[in-house]
Design goal:
Blueprint (H helix, E strand, L loop, with lengths): L1 E5 L7 E5 L9 E11 L1 H7 L17 E9 L11 E4 L12 H4 L14 E5 L3 E3 L6 H5 L1 H14 L8 E5 L3 H12 L3 E6 L2 H9 L4 E4 L6 H8 L5 E6 L6 H7 E9 L13 H4 L4 E4 L5 H14 L5 E7 L3 H10 L5 E5 L1
Parallel strand pairs: 8-9, 8-11, 9-10, 11-12, 12-13, 14-15
Antiparallel strand pairs: 1-2, 3-4, 3-6, 3-15, 4-5, 5-7
Helix pairs in contact: 4-5, 4-10, 7-8
């Protein structure tokens, strides 16, 4: 099989090579990977950005992939040859709160990922693909989709009538918009691009803020909220946006912390949080049980992930990661395998 392999940290050390075809063992499933999608986490991993919490030598990167079953090992009961499947992000976080074992089982981090033609995974690490989705659409769900689901539904507790703010037009933010609308909330979408704001509006955003033209966007968000502030902010920016997020939420509101796209370190004024009883909560994807529940919601509502217009082949993985770095994409960047 062909696979993208990272010899050592650095995007220039990523190359597609020929490897022996794997075979499934007891309780394992062999998947023919048809599509993968990229997360900012994949770019950081290729660059060695997670330090001791990842492998940097001979790693098959990329966490998210989908395809069909081509063989099953002894003891497998949930899948048969021909089933379309999508892999869960954390292979060993099955349910409940995470532990070190679960958080070290992210695909494309400590263990090999999905940037390959064939991948053996344990039966418990796979779910059936919703029938209305293509493989590329299914591959958009494991990391960005589940992270947004956790931020909005499981941890954010968004309910009908709430007002939610999402930042930008990357995978997590677009999914957060879609899931908030499924929950019956109103959504403020932000972007520095008017063209992207139009696309976010087409996905259901109720209010739009161009943060390039309105850098103090918290004030505008509170105006939209009638002065009381927002119920939930899905925070993907990090240091560059956190203060605005905290200023935008209502008393007792929540800022769901996901990304660090604009920086990881911030001199933050804690009284803003303490005196207004604001909840700051980290979100790290989710478990197999959460993924299964999210997939049911996606299937029942016919939700379609937003995919970037550009497509890349496996040989073009470095170019796909470079495209992701520019921020020019909308939704998920797809690698066809």
């Amino acid at each position: 099989m062909r696979a993208a392999v990272l010899a050592k940290a650095g995007i220039d050390n990523l190359a597609v090579v020929d490897l022996p075809d794997p075979e499934p063992g007891l309780g394992e499933v062999l998947v023919r990977v048809r599509a993968a999608t990229l997360n900012y986490r994949d770019l950081l991993t290729v660059e060695g950005g997670y330090g001791s919490r990842q492998r940097t030598e001979n790693l098959i990167p990329v966490s998210d992939g989908a395809g069909e079953v081509v063989a099953v090992g002894d003891g497998v009961t949930r899948f048969v040859v021909g089933d379309r499947v999508v892999a869960n992000f954390f292979q060993n976080w099955l349910s409940g709160e995470p532990d070190e074992v679960g958080l070290h089982s992210g695909l494309g981090g400590m263990i090999d990922g999905m940037a390959c033609e064939l991948r053996v995974l344990p039966e418990y690490g796979l779910c059936h693909t919703p029938t209305h989705l293509t493989d590329a659409e299914a591959a958009a769900l494991p990391c960005a989709g589940l992270t947004a689901w956790s931020a909005v539904i499981d941890q954010g507790g968004v309910k009908p009538g709430d007002l939610v703010l999402t930042q930008g037009s990357g995978g997590v933010s677009v999914f957060a918009l879609q899931f908030a609308k499924l929950a019956g909330a109103e959504v403020i979408a932000t972007s520095s691009s008017d063209a992207k704001l139009e696309r976010l509006e087409s996905l259901g955003a109720d209010y739009l803020i161009n943060y390039g033209k309105t850098p103090e966007w918290a004030r505008r968000a509170r105006e939209i909220a009638g002065g009381k502030g927002l119920d939930v902010v899905v925070e993907v920016g990090g240091a560059g946006t956190l203060e605005q997020s905290v200023k935008a939420v209502r008393l007792g509101g929540a800022v769901m912390l996901i990304g660090v796209l604009s920086g990881a370190k911030h001199d933050f004024r804690l009284p803003l949080v303490v005196t207004r009883k604001i909840r700051l909560e980290g979100v790290t994807c989710g478990s197999y049980a959460q993924f299964s529940m999210m997939l049911r919601a996606v299937a029942q509502n016919g939700l379609k992930p937003a995919l970037d217009d550009r497509r890349f082949a496996l040989d073009e993985l470095p170019a796909a990661l470079a495209h992701l770095r520019t921020g020019a994409h909308f939704g998920k960047v797809v690698v066809e395998i």
